[in-house]
Automatic annotation (TrEMBL):
The keyword tRNA processing applies. Keywords: Nucleus, tRNA processing. This is Unnamed protein product. InterPro entries: Alba-like_dom_sf (IPR036882), Pop7/Rpp20 (IPR014612), RNase_P/MRP_Pop7_fungi (IPR020241). The keyword Nucleus applies. It is found in: Nucleus. It comes from Candida boidinii (Yeast). GO terms for biological process: intronic box C/D snoRNA processing; nuclear-transcribed mRNA catabolic process, RNase MRP-dependent; rRNA processing; tRNA 5'-leader removal. GO terms for cellular component: nucleolar ribonuclease P complex; ribonuclease MRP complex. GO terms for molecular function: ribonuclease MRP activity; ribonuclease P activity; RNA binding.
Length: 153
């Protein structure tokens, strides 16, 4: 009987991303929505004031409840407002969702995901003064995202 070779699991790690010189230009992820979804999706940034976001969401909720009164009440499960936030805005989005759950008694659903975004690094050549001579490097990275659906009563 031959000697058995022990199988070892070899993991390859992703290469470390080196430092890229140049000016960082962040690009938002692509958004593909129909017209009806545009009216129901609210994006929150870390610089968005909390009270302003509350008022904007309440305005959309009033509009959605008004639309429900005009329509058949059987579509009640489909009537919700979506709040999305990435990175530093996640805590603000979660606070907004909890506010509507505790204060107003709305049903909420929480979804987490990762979204790929592109960072562009522009490196300008010092030799000439033309802005067309800028070299750009693109790098993809994943950003945490949270989505909260607030259902209209």
């Amino acid at each position: 009987m031959g000697a058995e070779k022990s199988k070892t699991l070899v993991r390859k790690q992703a290469p470390k991303l080196g430092k890229v010189e140049g000016k960082l230009v962040k690009h938002a992820p692509p958004r593909h929505y129909s017209y009806q979804q545009v009216q129901k999706v609210i994006h929150i940034k870390s610089s968005t004031p909390f009270v302003s976001a509350l008022k904007r969401i309440e305005k959309h909720m009033r509009q959605e409840s008004k639309n429900l009164k005009n329509k058949n009440r059987s579509s009640l499960n489909d009537s919700y407002i979506t709040i999305k936030g990435m990175g530093k805005a996640i805590s603000k989005v979660l606070s907004l969702g909890l506010h509507f759950k505790v204060e107003n008694g709305n049903k909420i659903e929480t979804f987490t995901k990762s979204i790929g975004v592109l960072d562009e690094f522009k490196k300008s050549n010092d030799d000439s003064s033309d802005s067309d001579d800028e070299e750009s490097t693109l790098r993809k990275r994943n950003v945490s995202c949270v989505e909260i659906r607030i259902y209209v009563k």
